[in-house]
Amino acid sequence: MKQIIALISMALLTLIWQPPALAGLDPNWQNPEAKFTASKNATDTKQITWRHTDNVQKECEAESHKRKLGGFGYAVVVAI
Predict the structure, then answer these.
(1) Is 74 helix (H, G, I), strand (E, B) or coil?
(2) Alpha carbons 29 and 31: distance in angstroms, whole number
(3) Do the Cβ atoms of 76 and 57 come closer than 8 Å?
């Protein structure tokens, strides 16, 4: 019985003292003041495609589903 308790205690201590798996990827995971790079998120170019449509709601829903976002779930308001 003492061996089982010792084994469980050792396993729990091992789990407690391990850093989170994802945090181990960043060398500054313990530093809340650490700088991070956003260069992968920034871009200087955008692509805009203009399309003529008679049914804006249908086009917006189709585009949302195409991008696997599940649709809007509400009416899209078109300002003319």
Answers:
(1) coil
(2) 6
(3) yes
**Above 60 in pLDDT, residue 22?**
no
pTM here is 0.39
**Exposure on the CB side of residue 54, measured as CA atoms within 13 A:** 0
Q: CB under 8 Å to 34, separation ≥6 — which residues? A: 26, 28
Rg (CA), the chain: 26
CA distances for 29 relative to 17, 21, 39, 53, 77, angstroms: 15, 11, 19, 49, 43
Confirm if 49 and 38 have CB atoms less than 8 A apart.
no
* Neighbouring residues of 59: CB distance < 8 A, sequence distance ≥ 6: 51, 53
Which DSSP category does 77 fall into? Answer: P
